[in-house]
Amino acid sequence: MILITGILGQLGFDLAKELKKRGKEFIAPSLEELELTTEAGAKNFILEKKPDTVIHCAAYTAVDKAESEQELALTVNGFGTRWVAEACREVDAKMIYISTDYVFGGDGHTPYEINDEKKPVNVYGRSKLLGEDAVTAILEKHFIVRTSWVFGINGNNFIKTMLRLAETRNKLNVVNDQIGSPTYTVDLAKLLADMAATEKYGTYHASNEGFCSWAEFAREIFKQAGLEVEVDGIPTLEYPTPARRPFNSRLSKKSLDEAGFNRLPEWQDAVKRYLVELNTAKAH
Ligand SMILES: NC(=O)c1ccc[n+]([C@@H]2O[C@H](COP(=O)([O-])OP(=O)(O)OC[C@H]3O[C@@H](n4cnc5c(N)ncnc54)[C@H](OP(=O)(O)O)[C@@H]3O)[C@@H](O)[C@H]2O)c1
User: Fold this and answer.
1) What are the pLDDT digits (tens) for 61-74?
2) DSSP assignment letter at 103
């Protein structure tokens, strides 16, 4: 049986849907049943239910807020993940830990390989790296899956923000010097479900195919949504945020290829399917 943490988040929600579609048995604890700020809260549900696989999607994900809530972010993503990994070891479960491009420093212009130097530039990245280190140290049967720029139906994300801004604005400034890959949770969920059925442990990068800047991402959203919004690309310097972001978030998919897993579809195709999903949800 599979246990999913963070089922009310963007990724957990679509992962549950994917497993249901595949007829896979899974359990998904509520926040009361699995809470990552205490050891007992993080471990007890897993120890009691003894799943054979834990897909750990829950995390502290507020990147800017993490700068002022450092202790909470490090606890949830660092210690919380450590406790989940320890519980997995105790019940002999495999674990899939979802991590992030933000563990890298963002230098250069080429895609990061899985073993490139980790040099997070913000608290959130440091906290997720602590989680990676704990999983690696504690559990042999683990997957680390780094993803980036996530969007899904159940939560807030860049696409929803752009569509909301388009209701009142016809011109927007969007950062054009951070390059990465958007990731649709529906596509990532399929890969995670595939992985969970294997013993091909290791570290992987998983985002939709292709690279873009946030400004290019925004233009594609408006084009596909049929909205006349002009996007002016601006440098990060002109859009200060509490947390620094890496300029280069390109992720190499070499390890996915080598293990024989399917890459995710192109990001523009993912945006298209997501807009259909949003419109369908709105119509109901
Ligand atoms: N979003 C991105 O752009 C992005 C990029 C790279 C990697 N990732 C990683 O991908 C994974 C999924 O991200 P997502 O966008 O689906 O995240 P999300 O929508 O923010 O969902 C995170 C989930 O974790 C739960 N959670 C937060 N604090 C918790 C705690 N102390 N104890 C138990 N549960 C807690 C949240 O519950 P509440 O809502 O009730 O707080 C929520 O259900 C995360 O590991 C994230 O670090 C995300």
Assistant:
1) 999 999 999 999 99
2) G
